[in-house]
Structure formats: structure tokens, C-alpha cells
Amino acid sequence: MYKALIIDDEEPTREAIRILGDWPRHGIGEVLEAADGQEGLALLERERPDLVLVDMKMPVMDGLAFLQAVEQDYPDLFTIVISGYNDFDYTRQAIRSRVVDYLLKPVNRGDLNQALAKAAGVLEARRSSKQGHIDRDIALNMSLPKLKENIYLSLLTRSFRAGSSEAYLRLIGADDPAMRFGVSVLRVLNLDEVAAGRFKGETALLHFAAANVIGEFAEEGFHSFGLANPKRERELIVIHAMTGGYPEDLAFRAAHFLRKIAQGLADLFGIRTSAGLSGPGVVVGGLADAYDAAVAAADGADLFRPDELQPGERREAGAISIASRMPQLRNAIEAGSAAQARTIAQHFMAGVREQGHISFRQADRLLAELLFVLGEIAQDLGLPAAGDEEGEGEGGGTAGGEGSQPAAGTRGGGARGAAGVQSRGALEALGLSADFGGIDEFEALVCRICERYAELARAALSPERAFDVAEIKRYIEQHYFEDIKISMFTERYFLSREYLMKLFKQHYGFGIHEYVQKVRMDRAKALLDRPELKIQEISEMLGFKDKNYFSKAFRNYVGLSPSEYRAQGADES
């Protein structure tokens, strides 16, 4: 029998966990309790429990500090985090410590016992196995989810060793000859946006959260396990398992399950996905072929209809290449004309739209081709690397050129995986996101890439190459009474309107037009404090040709008319 330890500063919570846990069924014969992390560490040293359930928010020593101590001193201990605080730092430590599960209060019976079953399963595997390599893997702090992930990845990539590794198969239920498996592949369409907005830029945390959601959508008699592909960061893999029934039944249930997952990810995190299915269920030895089929289906999804879900590889139009447009693009870049470069890109995409179909695979290849050729053009023109211009990116070389090296991908997705790594690095150097989830977003990205290279050329070849966004701010403060247009700055600094507006807002928290209005209104308030000035005079001093327009703008900004503001000031004095 195993021994468990509950660490929580609230006695009612500890009691509830005791009552809800089906301890004997999971082989746990003794349950200890501690009120904080420090007391828990003392019990851990004295009693040597096999499993610890720990709260994160506690006095004296909280769960974060406890997990850090356990990670250092007890690498073979299994932990389940139970917390009422869905906090980023707590979750990140849970990932690093590879806890068995992360449960939020109030804990329900099903979630708790599912987590206990995970821990009991790997504890039993460690105890009963006579093969030393399994024990060593577990001792290296591989919790059951992580261990199952490695087993599945080895099966998907055909690196699973028959014979020496077969003892692992019972951890995924593959020792049952009636068990059938299937694979689904989800492409995360807005990875950069969600990682930045919801997970502080950490894609590992996004992957962890998404995998947990997949695990929570369990169905009776139909199990699904989610993991992120370490070689293709936009790819989530879902392994389906079912005992009995026809192979086609698994495919039907997988399609139904995947629709629920896609909606759940969208509702919880705003994650948008496109998916591919492997088809009828297979025995465990067929998982690699099933994965290849799911990848082909996901990569073949149509940008015109990214939400469609169907098994098998989709119809793919003929090869799409931008090579015929490159002489025109080169001329636009040499001239530093972002508008011309955008027009060329739009004409090319109009041809793509006429075909009525482009797969994600084709789109990825087209991006890789575009970035590579534009990188070559930039090198020929002697332009600096895109990252150097704004202090972004790593290493030398022009974006899309030799600075971006491919990384190995899993079988069935290696070519696209390598192209994706190259494209992502080049886009990051350009300050652009690799997100696109449909034909409109893809066209916008293609146009922006072409514009950006023209902007780089214009800035590099201009005698006024040095640019400080503070110059725009100073100009506004000195010339607020004039008719200020953004085109003045785009022509002066050879940069696009979109880029200048984004840069200014990043630095000062206001758009350029907003800041002009702020300076004018702040100056208006100061002038209204001078009773000798008429409102008409103030309007003209601020650059407003119409007193009524000034009054309306002031009311919208301050909430009072100029006369009301002046009267209020007089009353206060």
C-alpha cells in the first residue's frame, strides 16, 4: 500500500480531500496531513510518503516554495497541486516540477480520483517492473503525463523499441489487444496572439493549458490524451483510445470529440484551431501511420474554409509560387516603395483567390519561399538584417537568408516543420507574427512582409536613416496648432503609416492623432484659465478654424464645454 500526504492550511479542505478520495481503490493505505509547506517537508523527511497533494496559497511556506524544495531534494516524488489560485507563477512551477496534475478548488470527486489514478498507475509500474530503465525514467522526475507523452512521441516517430520498451505499453492501455487508437492534429492558428495576451509570451504554458483542457473533455469508454509536438510548436496532437466497437466508430467519436475540444479551447483561451483526423482506429503499432495521415489532413486544410473537419488529405491545387512576381518586387524594394510592394503582393494574392483553394501546407511553403527570396534581395542590396534595425532577432544574416537554419521535424511533417522554423525566425526578425487562420489574414501577412522589406530598403538608403520616435513627439508639442498629418512623418522618415502609428503607441500609450488632441486639450485648459482670452481667440491659437468645432472637441475630451470649464475654475478659486 502507498502513503499520501495532504498539505493545506485549511482543515475543512484537508477533510474534504480525505472524504472525496477513493484511497483504497488506488492502493493508498495511509493519508497524512500538514498545515503548511514547512510542516510538510518535515513529514516528508520522516514518513517518506509516495504522493503529496499540496495547496499553493499557505502561510509560513507556500506551495511554490515547497515544490521548489521537492524538485531539488526529492526528484522521484509525485505531487498533485490543488489550488484556488489559477496563477501564472504557480502553474509555471507546476510545469517545471512535472506534477501529476493541477486541480483548482473546489475539487470535485471525479477530478481528484482521476489524478490519484494517474499517480497510482505510475507508482505501480515503478514498483512492479523489474526493468531498471523504467525505474530510472520515473526517478528522473517524469510524472505519468510526461512519461505517457514520451511513450506516445516514440510511437509516433517510430523510435519505440520493441522488446526493451514494451513494459511501458500498459501505461497507455496498449497491453489490451482490444484497444484501438486514432490520432488528431490541431494547428493553433493564433499562437503568437494568445501566448502574448494570455500566457505572458510562454508557449510552453499555452501547451500545458491546452493539453489539460483536452484531458478534461473525457468521454465514457473513449479516452483522449493531448500533447504538444516539440518539433512543430503550432501543433497539438491528440491520441484517442477506445476498447471494442468497429474501427470506424473511433473515427466518428474522434470527429465529435475534436469539435468539442476546438470549442473548449476557443471559449477558455481564445485559441483558434484547424484540425485533421487519422481515420479508423488502429492497433498501437499503427499509430505512426495514423499520425502521418492526421498531419496530411491538417496541413491540407483549406485557408478559405479552415473550420472544416474531415479525415484524410484534402484536394490540393497546383503549385503556387511567387517567383514570377519577384522582378517587380525587387524593383519596388530597390525604390523603397512600400505602397508599390503591397500592390504587387495584392495582385499576386488576387490570383491565389481566383483558384479558390490554398492549403496550409501551400501557404507555409509560399511564406518560406517569399522570405527566402526577399532575404536574398536584401543581401544583394546590402541591407542590414531586419532584427538589427530595431534591436530584434538573434545572430547575423538577413532574415530569410543564412541566419535561419531548419530544425528537424517529426516524420510526416519534417519538411513543413523545418520551413516553419525558418519562416518564424525570419518573421520575428521583421517584427511580424506568424499567425494566420484564413485567406484574409494570410494575404495581410504576405502584403506586410513585402512592405516591410521596402521600408527597410528605404530607411537604409535614405540619408535620414537615423530615426527616433521622440522626434515625432517633440514636433507635435511644438507644432500642435498646425494641421498635423501622419503622412508628414511617413515621408520624412521613409516608414509606413502603420509602422509609425504602432511604434508611437508602444512608446507613449497614445496614437499620433490621440496625442495631438491631448496636447491641444491640455493647452486649451491652460489658456481657459486666463480670463482675458476669449474662447474664439483660444480656438484660433490651438489651430481650430471653427469655434464650434473646438467647443465640441473640448466637450468630448473633458466632459464640459469651454465656458463650463472656465466657470468651474472661477468657482473653485
UniProtKB/TrEMBL annotation:
Keyword Transcription: yes
Modified sites of kind 4-aspartylphosphate: 55
Database matches in PROSITE patterns: HTH_ARAC_FAMILY_1 (PS00041), HTH_ARAC_FAMILY_2 (PS01124), RESPONSE_REGULATORY (PS50110)
Domain of life: Bacteria
A family per Pfam: Response_reg
Keywords for this protein: Cytoplasm, DNA-binding, Phosphoprotein, Transcription, Transcription regulation, Two-component regulatory system
InterPro entries: CheY-like_superfamily, Homeodomain-like_sf, HptR, HTH_AraC, HTH_AraC-typ_CS, Sig_transdc_resp-reg_receiver, Tscrpt_reg_AraC-type_HTH
Biased composition (Gly residues): 394-403
Coarse class of the protein's main subcellular location: cytoplasm
Residues covered by the Response regulatory domain: 3-120
Limits of the HTH araC/xylS-type domain: 470-568
Cellular localization per UniProt: Cytoplasm
Region feature (Disordered): 384-416
Matching SUPFAM superfamilies: CheY-like (SSF52172), Homeodomain-like (SSF46689)
Name assigned to this protein: Response regulator
